[in-house]
Amino acid sequence: MFGECCVFVDDKPVALTCENLTFVVMHPAIAKLMKGAWTSHPFKGAKECYVLEIENKEKALSVVKTLLPVIKPTECY
């Protein structure tokens, strides 16, 4: 179905890691945080996602914290 790893926090899928990139769902709640971010499809047939630069730990943590209250446990990529 998809690449290497799906990251769950509180039973919610918050990120995918595929092809050495980390992807997060293009949710309106993180649009400002991800402004200017590169977008791509984590795997064939997947929805377009933001590419999260995990090297920027503060921003990555802020994105995850913002997604947690709004993302659904069944949200798919």
How is this fold's topology laid out?
Layout: E1 5-9, E2 12-18, E3 21-25, E4 39-40, E5 49-52, H1 57-67
Antiparallel strand pairs: 1-2, 2-3, 3-5, 4-5
Number of helices: 1
String of helices and strands: EEEEEH
Helix content: 10-25%
Question: Strand percentage, roughly?
Answer: 25-35%
The averaged pLDDT comes out at 89
Low-confidence stretches: none
Structural class: alpha+beta
Overall 3D form: globular
Largest sheet: 5 strands, antiparallel
Radius of gyration: 11 Å
**Overall strand count:** 5
Strand order of the biggest β-sheet: 1-2-3-5-4
C-alpha end-to-end distance: 10 Å
Description:
- The model has no long low-confidence stretch (mean pLDDT 89).
- The chain is globular and about 25 Å long.
- Strands 1-2-3-5-4 form a five-stranded antiparallel sheet, covered by helices on one side.
- It has 77 residues and is α+β, with helices and mostly antiparallel strands.
- The N and C termini lie close together (10 Å).
- Helix content is 14%, strand content 30%.
- The chain has one helix and five strands, in the order βββββα.
List keywords for this structure.
77 residues; alpha+beta; five-stranded antiparallel sheet; 1 helix; 5 strands; 30% strand
In short:
The chain is built from one helix and five strands.
